[in-house]
């Protein structure tokens, strides 16, 4: 069956990166409704209507589908997508294999007004630097790959969020913001129940840079410097700052996940 399936290990390696596939939860409607969790960035789709919603998927995208066990439901949907010319694969073992492996899951109820038919919308303050770049990275990589972000004056964050049916974050007086010594990045991890060791290691770096607590992580001062440099380069173009900032967190996350034990010095040792 060749490339018809993707293993939990391969999918796990791609989640949290800019090369992650589109993930479709095609569990039967009643099973999906009763389940409190989904895979990171997954959107629910009716498997029997794959021929219809497949038209809205980007032609160049990799697509991974999962049902409960990776049997007839997801395989039917994948076959339809592949017939339509899409690169679609089925998660081996489905949701249950992923869950039993202890891999990251996302709490469905944590996303206010969750709507499977459109991207989530998020509103925060102008001139993002650290938390307001780290949070969009976390959201795009683990919660909603199509999430949209808006930057406005602080006093307008709540009104604009209300008008857009969006989620306000990283301002005083809203639910998703700093809590005690924790920053908004920490709040999102806790709210969505994301259990990921590399992400947990990244959190004190973000918190230290965002709050001036360089004692929390040796890398915090460097992250602050890079973040301020991006802000200086981009000026008032917040969308550009976001585009330039996301790869920084991709790199930090990749380092924590697979290269944290590597060292570098001079003169070089070996080859």
Which quaternary structure do these chains form? single chain
Distance between the termini: 40 Å
- SSE pattern, N- to C-terminal: EHEHEEHEHEHEEHEHEHHHH
How much of the sequence is in beta strands?
Answer: 5-15%
Tell me roughly what share of residues is in helical segments: 40-55%
What's the β-strand tally? 10
Major sheet summary line: 5 strands, parallel
The computed structural class is alpha/beta
Protein described:
This protein has 271 residues and is of the alpha/beta class. The chain folds into 2 domains: 2-103, Rhodanese-like domain (Oxidized Rhodanese, domain 1), CATH 3.40.250.10; 114-259, no CATH class. Helices cover 44% and strands 13% of the residues. It is built from 11 helices and 10 strands. The strands form 3 sheets. The chain has a 5-stranded parallel beta sheet. A 3-stranded parallel beta sheet has the order 9-8-10, covered by helices on one side. The chain has a two-stranded antiparallel sheet with strand order 3-7. Strand 8, helix 6 and strand 9 (148-152) form a beta-alpha-beta unit. Helix 6 runs parallel beside helix 8 (184-192). The chain is globular. The model has no long low-confidence stretch (mean pLDDT 95).
List the helices and strands and how they pair.
Elements: E1 5-6, H1 8-14, E2 22-25, H2 29-34, E3 37-38, E4 43-44, H3 50-53, E5 62-66, H4 72-83, E6 87-91, H5 94-100, E7 106-107, E8 121-125, H6 131-143, E9 148-152, H7 157-164, E10 167-168, H8 184-192, H9 197-211, H10 220-234, H11 238-259
Parallel strand pairs: 1-6, 2-4, 2-5, 5-6, 8-9, 8-10
Antiparallel strand pairs: 3-7
Helix pairs in contact: 6-8, 6-11, 9-10, 9-11, 10-11
């Amino acid at each position: 069956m060749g490339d018809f399936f993707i293993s939990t290990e391969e999918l796990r390696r791609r989640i949290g990166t800019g090369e992650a596939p589109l993930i479709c939860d095609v569990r039967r409607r009643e099973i999906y409704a009763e389940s409190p969790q989904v895979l990171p960035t997954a959107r629910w789709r009716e498997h029997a209507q794959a021929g219809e919603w497949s038209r809205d998927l980007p032609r160049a995208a990799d697509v991974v589908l999962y049902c409960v066990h990776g049997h007839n439901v997801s395989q039917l949907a994948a076959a339809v997508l592949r017939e339509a010319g899409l690169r679609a694969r089925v998660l081996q073992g489905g949701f249950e294999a992923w869950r039993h492996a202890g891999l990251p899951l996302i709490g469905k109820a944590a996303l206010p007004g969750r709507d499977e038919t459109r991207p989530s919308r998020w509103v925060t303050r102008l001139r993002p630097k650290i938390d307001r770049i780290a949070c969009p990275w976390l959201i795009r990589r683990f919660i909603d790959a199509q999430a949209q972000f808006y930057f406005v004056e602080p006093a307008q964050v709540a009104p604009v969020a209300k008008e857009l049916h969006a989620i306000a974050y990283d301002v005083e007086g809203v639910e998703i913001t700093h809590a005690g010594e924790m920053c908004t990045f920490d709040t999102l991890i806790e709210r969505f129940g994301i259990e990921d060791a590399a992400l947990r290691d990244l959190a004190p770096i973000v918190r230290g840079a965002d709050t001036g607590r360089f004692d929390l992580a040796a890398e915090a001062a460097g992250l602050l410097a890079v973040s301020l440099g991006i802000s200086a380069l981009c000026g008032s173009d917040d969308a550009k700052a976001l585009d330039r900032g996301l790869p920084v967190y991709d790199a930090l996350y990749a380092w924590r996940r697979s290269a944290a034990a590597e060292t570098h010095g001079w003169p070089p040792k070996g080859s």
